[in-house]
Amino acid sequence: MIKAVFFDLDGTLLNSQKIISDKTKYALMECKNKGINLFVATARPPILNKMLSRSKADFKLFDGGVFCNGGCIKINNQVTYKFLPEEIVSYCINETNKYKNLNIALQMKDERYAFNNPLDDFAYKPWGIAKEDAVYITNDCLSQTIKILIYYENIIDTVTKLPDKIVKELHKYCGEYSKFYLTDKGKVIQITSKYASKYKGIEAIRKKLGIQKSELAVFGDDTNDVEMLTAYENTVAMGNADEQIKKIAQFVTKSNDDDGISYALTELLKIV
């Protein structure tokens, strides 16, 4: 019996318009009515309503979640953080700054951000922050970082793949001491503490709830979902996921634009 479900957001729970469809909301409400706990497991920080320009009511169905790829865990209004080593943060900043127009953002404790370059004016709202709240990177930021993002453009509109050289250099340096993900089809690097991952965050919540691994289900679509999709027996890859992601999941559902969440909950997992 499924007692908890964890959903990745972008490309999974959210469709291409970055909304939760009405059909998906109905399926989620049916889960709640059956006493099933719902959580997000996302690379995003907890300020989802601000980032997605949605009311807080849209996320009231969820009991907490794993944020920043496991760098932040929230359950029952309790928050825990996993910080990156300062030397990793410093190295990534220095390497990024060697490339023209390449951007690095530090996601920090309490949903704060620091940037090496400013975003375009239109991009602050989708990041969930006001322009005046964004700060430039200083040494004070190094000890407060829970996730690093490296990207071109504004990340929300990026079309430029990252140079192979920096991907290889950062993976070589950071791989042993952190979790390194190349996501968005090679356009974004995400780095978190080696003690942080979606899987480890889910495990922390699972143990706190006192449920078995067989009593939860997980949904995902990208490379930072691999660990959680291989750790449990009730795993679902979206129809829009990369082929490698589909191969490791127990089920493959419809795409995020074809109400794949609803289809999986009703037809594949049969929990609503």
Summarize the structure.
By secondary structure, the chain is of the alpha/beta class. The chain is built from nine helices and 14 strands. α1 (22-33) packs parallel to α9.
Describe the structure.
27% of the residues lie in helices and 23% in strands. The longest helix is centred in the first third of the chain and has 12 residues, at 22-33. Helix 1 runs parallel beside helix 9 and helix 3 runs antiparallel to helix 5 (164-174). A hairpin with a 3-residue loop joins strand 6 and strand 7 (112-115). The protein is α/β, with parallel strands linked by helices and 272 residues long. The strands form two sheets. The chain has an eight-stranded mixed beta sheet, sandwiched between helices. A six-stranded mixed beta sheet has the order 8-7-6-9-11-10, covered by helices on one side.
Summarize the SSE layout with pairings.
Elements: E1 4-7, H1 22-33, E2 37-41, H2 48-51, E3 64-67, E4 72-75, E5 78-81, H3 86-96, E6 103-108, E7 112-115, H4 124-127, E8 135-136, E9 145-151, H5 164-174, E10 178-183, E11 188-193, H6 198-209, E12 216-220, H7 226-229, E13 235-237, H8 243-248, E14 251-252, H9 260-268
Helix pairs in contact: 1-9, 3-5
